[in-house]
Specification:
Layout: E1 18-31, E2 34-41, E3 44-51, H1 56-62, E4 70-79, E5 92-103, H2 120-125, H3 127-130, H4 134-156, E6 160-161, E7 179-181, E8 189-191, H5 197-205, E9 210-218, E10 230-239, H6 243-261, E11 266-267, E12 274-276, H7 277-284, E13 298-299, H8 301-304, H9 310-317, E14 321-328, H10 333-345, E15 352-357, E16 360-362, H11 371-380, H12 383-389, E17 395-402, H13 404-421, E18 429-430, E19 432-436, E20 441-444, E21 449-452, E22 479-484, E23 487-494, H14 499-508, H15 513-527, E24 534-540, H16 541-549, H17 579-583
Parallel strand pairs: 3-5, 6-9, 11-18, 12-19
Antiparallel strand pairs: 1-2, 1-4, 2-3, 4-5, 7-8, 9-10, 10-24, 13-14, 14-17, 15-16, 15-17, 19-22, 20-21, 22-23, 23-24
Helix pairs in contact: 4-6, 4-16, 10-13, 14-15
The structure holds aspartic acid.
The site of aspartic acid has 9 residues, from strand 23 and strand 24.
């Protein structure tokens, strides 16, 4: 070994020991006859001291050490009089008797030793330097610890880790597939898995009983949101279980893993509340509610149904709703305009408002509303409580009058924006819940058909099966999503295991029997050979680790993420390939007019 200890290891008890350390030059300070170097490796930082009186040659050489050079030093551990409480090794230093430069470094494009705002593309281009930074090194370690914990947990629960193919057939999870051309079968393509959904279900038919895998999944989606074209799922499937069983095991995993790897985080509520999908939409405007704060949507439809203000009563007469957020404090006109803009982006026609102040109630719509309506809303929306929370003693109602879906989308978005603006989000808290009873299908008006909300293999609630043909929208799925701080971190369902019901579900989704046979014949056939009832779930592992790490994007917890245009600034992927390579695949590339995504 080129070293006797790591840079995080030495303590006062080692005083007097001869050691060899190796690592990166983190910082260097020159002080007359002394040069201090903070030597860094993954394990920590140790101060190594070059003294002209101890070794003149090493002292001279130390002067030329640059940031991020890799060196080895021999020396003696010595207790420090001026201990540095910030370092685990702060009680000691190594007094150097010999220095070896193992590798020099160019001047890095950004500082590794300080937490600065660095351009993200630059960080990705020099990811090896970025990953040396304390924060990223900590995130990598946390990810490793979470993954190790989950593996050990699932091992104790009798899960088998089984690998499933990467070169496979399309499985519908609602995104576009990444395709891989086949050389052996020109004109045919493998699809990279959007998830191992079909293979894990087939593993249940194979008797595996409990499967898990840290599965890399691929979805060719627009990456505006915090998504990656390839991401990691902790994927599971279990036989002879119902929805409660799957939720119970996974809730325990979340609680125990978090306690083990991020013990400073507190859970807001345990057991995790179970919120029906419809209720989540009504209260929070989304099926991914952030429960770390209140600010729930208030339904004022009943109060204003008979209002002389036609924007409200007319909307309700057409089957819509009038819903509002009641917020503490009074916003300026400019702030309201910005909020209205957000509401409009989500489809609302506008954002009406009322300000409840000590002096009275004002707002452009106040004159159209009766005293009874204004007071009814005050009561219904608990305005007094919001006023008590505010510094100026006022409170506001922000209304959207629209069909329910639009009102929910707009107010749901405003709710999260306002929570940020009003600093309502407590630090260090995990607010988790299960969203249950989601609809099985939703109407896709563009394509004029029903789409699966989860995927076509999700089982309907048994009591809803009879109504599948007549009223598809009313059929609830045996599905469950684990939502934490407003992020869906896991989702799954009990599956259909009867071939007839699976065919009926395909039929509902507009998949004709021939097409079902062509695309999913292997599953239907497998189910005809004795399929156990089964269900499963998949965790978005990147998001889970992001929450445990307290980060705001998944790119901070992925060693080598892609940019928002799905490229890798470090390797230059995706890259062109030689014509000869395309030829053997029977592929010719048609020139495109513009190549917007050619560069990072
Ligand atoms: N395959 C699903 C997904 O990727 C998860 C599951 O149903 O287990 O979202």
């Amino acid at each position: 070994m080129l070293r006797t200890h790591t840079c995080g290891e030495l303590r006062a008890a080692h005083a007097g020991t001869s050691v060899t350390l190796a690592g990166w030059v983190h910082r260097r300070r020159d002080h007359g006859g002394l040069v201090f170097v903070d030597l860094r490796d993954r394990h920590g930082i140790t101060q190594v001291t070059f003294d002209s009186d101890v070794d003149a040659a090493a002292f001279e050489a130390a002067h030329s050490l640059g940031h991020e050079w890799v060196v080895a030093v021999d020396g003696t551990v010595s207790e420090r009089i001026d201990a540095n409480p910030e370092l685990d090794t702060g009680g000691i230093e190594v007094r150097v008797s010999a220095l070896r430069v193992l590798s020099a470094s160019q001047v890095p494009p950004f500082e590794v030793s300080r937490e600065l705002n660095i351009d993200e593309n630059l960080r990705m281009q020099y990811r090896y330097l970025d990953l040396r930074r304390a924060r990223m090194a900590r995130n990598l370690r946390l990810r490793h610890e979470a993954t190790s914990f989950a593996r050990a947990f699932l091992d104790r629960e009798a899960f088998l880790d089984v690998e499933t193919p990467i070169l496979t057939r399309a499985t519908p999870e609602g995104a576009r597939d990444y395709l891989v051309p086949s050389r052996e079968h020109p004109g045919r393509f493998y699809a990279l898995p959007q998830s191992p959904q079909q293979t894990k279900q087939i593993l249940m038919v194979a008797g595996v009983d409990r499967y898990y895998q840290f599965a890399r999944c691929f979805r060719d989606e627009d990456l505006r949101a915090d998504r990656q074209p390839e991401f990691t799922q902790l994927d599971m499937e279990l036989s002879f279980v119902d929805a409660d069983d799957v939720m119970a095991i996974n809730e325990r995993l979340m609680l125990e893993m978090s306690a083990a790897v991020a013990p400073h985080l507190r859970f807001r509520e345990t057991p995790f509340p179970r919120i029906p999908f419809d209720e989540a939409m009504a209260r929070f405007g989304t099926d991914q509610p952030d429960l770390r704060y209140g600010l729930e949507l208030v339904d004022l439809s009943a109060v204003v149904a008979g209002s002389g203000f036609k924007v409200f009563s007319g909307t309700i007469a057409k089957g819509g709703v009038v819903k509002a957020l009641a917020v503490p404090g009074i916003f300026t006109r400019k702030q309201i305009d910005a909020l209205e803009e957000t509401a409009k982006q989500r489809g609302a026609a506008g954002l009406a408002w009322l300000a409840y102040e000590a002096e009275g109630v004002r707002g452009p719509i106040a004159k159209f509303l009766s005293e009874a309506e204004i007071e009814g809303m005050r009561e219904h929306a608990s305005i007094a409580a919001r006023q008590a929370e505010s510094e100026d003693g006022g409170a506001m109602l922000l209304f959207v009058a629209a069909e329910a879906a639009v009102a929910h989308a707009a107010l749901g978005r405003l709710r999260t924006d306002l929570a940020d603006q009003l600093a309502l989000i407590p630090d260090g808290e995990l607010a988790c819940c299960w969203i249950v009873d989601a609809p099985l299908v939703e109407w896709n008006a563009d394509e004029d058909r029903w789409d699966a909300v989860h995927h076509p293999f999700t089982a309907p609630r048994p009591e809803d099966v009879a109504g599948m043909a007549d009223d598809p929208a009313a059929v609830r799925a045996q599905a469950y999503d684990l939502v934490c701080n407003g992020y869906e971190i896991a989702g799954g369902s009990v599956r259909i295991h009867e071939p007839e019901l699976q065919l009926a579900a395909f039929g509902l989704l507009g998949i004709a029997p021939e097409q079902a046979e062509e695309e999913f014949g292997h599953m239907l056939e497998a189910f005809s050979y004795g399929a156990p009832p089964h269900g499963g779930i998949a965790w978005g592992w990147d998001r889970t680790v992001m929450l445990l790490a307290g980060e705001r994007t998944i790119r901070e917890v992925i060693a080598f993420p892609k940019t928002l245009v799905a490229s890798d600034p470090m390797t230059g992927a995706p890259a062109p390939v030689a014509d000869a390579n395309l030829k053997v695949l029977g592929i010719a590339v048609r020139p495109t007019k513009d190549e917007p995504h050619a560069q990072g």
